[in-house]
User: Fold these one by one.
Assistant:
Number 1:
Amino acid sequence: MTDTGTDVALTPTSQGRALSPATPSGRPALSRFGIPLALAGLGGGWSAARSSLGSPVWPEEILYGAASSLWLVLTAVYVFRGLRRRGAFRADLRHQLAGPFASFIPLVGILLSSHCSQYLPPWGA
């Protein structure tokens, strides 16, 4: 074996853990809104399968219910913790990685309102 004279440090460097601009002050990351988006999408897929294949209704309602409850919790936590710091949402929108995920917040609401409009027609209009 040859010795090149370079030593590799096997211990991690001591760097302080700084919060990224996407999650300041303990707010959930915007990418977590992908979970209720996926659940609402699965509910929409099950709705399409129900209308064409005659599958049961209960999985669709469970998926939409889980998506709506998770979306409401994440949105409430994001808004209430975001009000503590001025310009936090603007900083999230301008963040290179987290910015596009901000569109998930209204998108999930649109998917859920399209499902709930069959039960509450005036609100769906």
Number 2:
Amino acid sequence: MTTENLNEYLADDGVAPDRWASALHLFDNGPGVPHEESTAERWERARLLFDAKDYIGAARLLDAVVEEAPEQTGPRLLLARAYYHSAQLKRAEGELREIVERDPVEHYAHLMLGRTLQRQGRREEAEPWLRMAAAFAGDLPVDD
């Protein structure tokens, strides 16, 4: 690093994004005392991994977050997306079905479930989910 101003150092300049998130609390408990990561910290680190396109790493963390906070839709939806992007389509489908069962108006889950089914070659099964997502988005077909 050639600059004197540490604020000019970019976090993505050769350092994995999750290292920045985990490094923030290295010394909270004092030197030599291990820091136990909270659910919120795991959630934040998983989002950084997802943004860095490390979908498998994100899924590992998100699986723990979802186990610790199963009622939260956000982590479960990001877990489904991580599974989708890492081609773990059956797992993505399972998480998405759980989301729409718990929250039937979560329109993005309907869209993702339809896309996940399409990607598995189950186009006919995907259609109702995609129609429902379109209806939630206000993209209904116009009758002539």
Number 3:
Amino acid sequence: MTAAGRRRREAVRMQAAELFEQKIKPPEVARRLRVSRKSAYQWHQLWRDGGAQALASRGASGSRCRLSPRCLEKLAVYLEQGPAAHGWVEDQVWTAARVATLIGRKFHVSYSVSGATRLMHRLGFSPQVPARRVAERDEQTVTVWKEATWAEVKEPGRPAEATSASRTRRASPDGRPKDAPGAGVE
């Protein structure tokens, strides 16, 4: 959820607290604020137990980042350096698995592939999408290959006249063999 979405949800909960203070029942709060009755009843219970502060946001949900802000800065520098600088010389693509491995090597912290993906997005990176073409790419060789080799390798599609798709209609009984099922039936 975005920060704006979290702020909006908190504002709605604070409006609910004001309505509860005016002795308005949860079903009416739900109707006025356009939320489910279940949410209104849960908020009412929280409000009764701890007041309006019990409805205040506790921040973003989920587990905390296991890397300090300083480590996150270092990770961003490592990612900017590219995969080759850290041992992946096959291509210049950061995959989430590579980033998880890099985090483990550099910071001795274990991250799952999905966790590494979220962390990359948080830092402004996108896994498996190179920011630019590989420096070693030879455009002329690629063009020649597409025009010559690919044209030979690619299977040609079937010509339109070779297909058998057509509208279906009942066959004429005259066209059937005399001993075929349904022969002679009109």
Number 4:
Amino acid sequence: MAAAQDAILEELRRLRARVPQLTGALAADADGLVLAQDTPGVDPESVAALTSATRALAARLADGTGQGDLRELLVRGVYGYVATYPAGAGAVVTLLAQDRVNVGRLHLEGRRAGARIAELVGDAAAEHTEAITKAPAKPAPARARAARTSRAKPEDPRAAATAPTAGRTTTASQTTEETQSWPTPKPR
């Protein structure tokens, strides 16, 4: 994704060179997280978050009034413009421009930049998906099992006192008769 961010930043810089009245440009994902930015003097995280929220409202307004899908969002302030263009399904391009910008040129270049950034974001997403599917699956970590403690009832102390020590232990060499000759304690 770092290569895609560098390519997106380069696209934003070329855009600013083509439209000299631009004072800033940024690309953000649909959640309002900055992908790349060239916005001197402006907090890019705030602009990206506000763009995401405003774009969602504008898309609802366009759809609710029967105007179709949102193509661009243009806000004009006393000192200039803020224009937002879709960059595929998962990103947007936001441009800051002086009030003397040619708005037609702003739209033309903003749409072109949005299309190019959509390609870059799509290529990065495809590479990421391909890397995930080609990566060997990691074996699941072995779960450590806790040692089980015996739940047998404790031995009756009275039975242990009456039986000789040799009677409580058996070995493989003892015969069945020897094992059976010792009295077995009765369970309580």
